[in-house]
Write a structure and sequence with these properties.
The protein is mainly α. About 75% of the residues lie in helices and about 5% in strands. The protein has a two-stranded antiparallel sheet. Helix 2 packs across helix 3 and helix 3 packs across helix 6. The longest helix has about 40 residues.
């Protein structure tokens, strides 16, 4: 029983902390470099032209998750024109009760919310602009893990072109987490880990554990595919701005 429980804890922490944070680090690192290249070539304002949708989604994700975890919003701007005094493109200022475990744990999810917000937005765009590709992705969920395959179906090139342009804008402006975002996320890291361990132990004592862990694995597969797609777009954008 103890061995099985420890295995489940390792699985949950790996899939819910390890895998997402690996892609969070990769996406943030690549897009930070892209934004720096844009700044060097076009100035700070160039980030708005090439990534305004991503900036709005980035800040909106912070805002929404802060509200979900009961934080008080002092001030926010989803998009702002940088000035000589401040090159900030957007911000969400929030406060919370440091004695409240739920609100403290929320800092982890608030800090990294833009990554998931941008990925979800790209996924929803795929549903309406390139529905054939989206359906292929959804079908991955129904496949047994030992028979997992993903093929690129036929699609409309115009819709794909529009999708890629919008997705690139979101990647450029949305995926770059600032040092303040990472610092904020660190404040709730250990509370989130302890909460996940407690929930895993409870689930491991119920007959639902097999179904729930199976669901978690399949959801993680979807997250990995979406993240890899966004990482590919991000790398392409970095190479483009490197040579223009």
């Amino acid at each position: 029983m103890l061995k099985e429980m420890l295995k489940n804890i390792g699985l949950v922490l790996g899939l819910m902390i390890g895998v997402p944070f690996l892609f969070i680090y990769l996406l943030s690192s690549v897009n930070h470099r892209t934004k720096q290249q844009i700044t060097n070539r076009f100035g700070v304002g160039g980030q708005i032209g090439f990534g305004f949708l991503g900036i709005i989604i980035h800040e909106a994700s912070h805002l929404l998750v802060a509200l979900i975890f009961g934080h008080h919003i002092d001030q926010f701007r989803l998009l702002r024109i940088p000035t000589a005094d401040s090159d900030t493109l957007g911000y969400v200022h929030h406060t919370w009760n440091k004695r409240n475990l739920y609100q403290n744990m929320g800092n982890l999810f608030i800090g990294v919310a833009p990554i998931f917000g941008c990925c979800l937005t790209v996924l929803l765009m795929a549903k309406y602009l390139i529905s054939e590709v989206y359906q292929s992705l959804v079908n991955v969920y129904d496949q047994p893990l030992n028979q997992l395959t993903f093929g690129l179906p036929s699609f409309n090139w115009l819709s794909m072109g529009i999708f890629l342009i919008i997705a690139a804008n979101i990647c450029i402006g949305g995926f770059d987490l600032s040092p303040a975002d990472f610092e904020n996320a660190k404040q709730g890291f250990w509370q989130a880990v302890l909460c996940l361990i407690a929930v895993t132990i409870i689930i491991s004592l119920t007959p639902l554990q097999t179904a729930l862990f199976h669901l978690l694995i399949h959801v993680t597969v979807i997250i990995v595919i979406i993240s890899l797609f966004n990482l590919l777009i991000s790398i392409v954008m970095t190479l483009i701005f490197r040579f223009i």
